């Protein structure tokens, strides 16, 4: 597996251009758009060449489970966008996290992770990894002192989702990276909600960035995929898991994500702008008790968001009156917004986290993660914001 040498390329070129042009070496056909290599295997000119490529002595493609040209273009491009040394693409965001853990940890190792994160990530860390002797200690995301206090002799990984889904809680990445490296651990940041257009954790000291490419990197809810970006020494170990275990990204999905990256910067900035406008409106609505969005000046970490992000993203959490029944009545009154748990789509979506994305968590876990019965999460798309506001009003106005 080669280290991607993007550094010289990006010196004088913005991420807008990198996300559109980097990583594609044209074939002899001189295609303009990236080709899709829909093949399971590759042909060799001799037995010696086949042996050389399988052993790694000869550079070239071997098998699409771990070695596909279309997937490699996506990996190179995303690595460059994140300022990472290397990238490995996976079949989903959760398989990216699973492969990461399998690649760099062993039985007896420990993880310190934030309570504020996607429900399936919590379940993976707390329910399944423990079966293999990997223990996770959960702490409050924003409490730097709690992170340091939770580190033990066996801690190998610090894992944070910032901003968090769905409460927009943040951690100071630079401060956490100093602690992580002082104790000789690896810092992993889930950058799904910001993407590299709004936040680059590696430039702030993170060692690894994980993505659910299913979300904003695609942008249209078409395909599943994930990715791990970071130091070459770590990515090589994770690549080994992909090669042997097979949670790989398909060539067709990689091509979809390449098309998504081309418009990522435009989408993120427009959707973030719409989200700020809607968050301010929700904050003033009489049916809304609290809004979770770091773009609001009322957010306790607003100034940290301004410091380490280039925008606030398009995910808004908000609590409404009436608990679960109130939340469900708002959802049931929706006519335009899509009722679905996916996010990052150009179509606005809404969900009730307590019974969907975090539904598998126990009541105590939900309480620790701040997932209340009256909490709703909305992912702002590209529709006219007045139409979205009008649609939400149908449900909110029935609560008072």
Automatic annotation (TrEMBL):
It is an enzyme of class 2 (transferase). One of its GO terms (cellular component) is cytoplasm. This is O-succinylhomoserine sulfhydrylase. It comes from Candidatus Johnevansia muelleri. The gene is metZ. Keywords: Amino-acid biosynthesis, Methionine biosynthesis, Pyridoxal phosphate, Transferase. Its cofactor is pyridoxal 5'-phosphate. Catalyzes the formation of L-homocysteine from O-succinyl-L-homoserine (OSHS) and hydrogen sulfide. CDD domains: CGS_like. Its EC number is 2.5.1.-. Homotetramer.
């Amino acid at each position: 597996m080669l280290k991607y040498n993007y550094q010289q390329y990006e010196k004088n070129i913005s991420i807008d251009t990198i996300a559109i042009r980097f990583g594609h070496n044209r074939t002899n056909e001189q295609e303009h758009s990236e080709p899709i290599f829909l093949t399971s295997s590759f042909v060799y000119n001799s037995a010696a060449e086949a042996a050389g490529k399988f052993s790694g002595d000869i550079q070239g493609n071997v098998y699409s489970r771990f070695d596909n040209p279309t997937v490699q273009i996506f990996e190179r491009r995303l690595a460059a966008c994140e300022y990472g040394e290397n990238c490995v693409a996976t079949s989903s965001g959760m398989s990216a996290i699973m492969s990461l853990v399998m690649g760099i940890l062993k039985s007896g190792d420990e993880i310190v992770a934030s309570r504020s994160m996607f429900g399936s990530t919590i379940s993976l860390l707390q329910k399944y990894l423990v079966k293999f002797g990997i223990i996770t200690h959960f702490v409050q995301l924003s409490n730097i002192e709690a992170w340091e206090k939770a580190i033990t002799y066996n801690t190998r990984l610090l894992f944070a989702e910032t901003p968090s889904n769905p409460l927009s809680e943040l951690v100071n990445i630079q401060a956490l990276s100093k602690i992580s490296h002082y104790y000789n651990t690896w810092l992993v940041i889930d950058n799904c909600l910001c993407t590299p257009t709004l936040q680059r954790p590696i430039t702030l000291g993170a060692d690894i960035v994980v993505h659910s490419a299913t979300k904003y990197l695609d942008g249209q809810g078409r395909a599943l995929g994930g990715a791990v970006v970071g130091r070459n020494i770590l990515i090589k170990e994770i690549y080994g898991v992909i090669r042997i275990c097979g949670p790989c990204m398909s060539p067709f999905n990689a091509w979809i994500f390449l098309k998504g990256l081309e418009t990522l910067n435009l989408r993120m900035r427009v959707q973030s702008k719409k989200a700020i406008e809607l968050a301010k409106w929700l904050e003033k609505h009489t049916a809304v008790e609290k809004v979770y969005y770091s773009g609001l000046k009322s957010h306790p970490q607003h100034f940290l968001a301004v410091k380490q992000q280039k925008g606030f993203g398009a995910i808004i959490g908000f609590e409404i009156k009436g608990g679960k029944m109130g939340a469900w009545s708002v959802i049931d009154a929706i006519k335009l917004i899509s009722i679905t748990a996916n996010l990052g789509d150009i179509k606005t979506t809404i969900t009730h986290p307590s019974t969907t994305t975090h539904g598998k968590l126990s009541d105590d876990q939900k309480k620790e993660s701040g997932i209340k019965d009256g909490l709703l999460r909305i992912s702002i798309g590209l529709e006219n914001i007045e139409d979205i506001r009008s649609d939400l009003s149908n449900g909110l106005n029935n609560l008072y």
